[in-house]
Specification:
0% strand
Length: 53
Amino acid sequence: MRKWPRMVLGTAGAIAVAIVWGITATLMGVPSILITIGAVAIGAGVYSYLSQN
């Protein structure tokens, strides 16, 4: 796979997972700072994983 489709998929995947985390954490009543930190961490992890493969 070429580099730019992988970057697009990585970015889209990171955003999607961060949004799902944010919604789930909000429904569970998690404080907003933890939602932000978790979304950034999860998004960065998904992005780096998809961009490496």
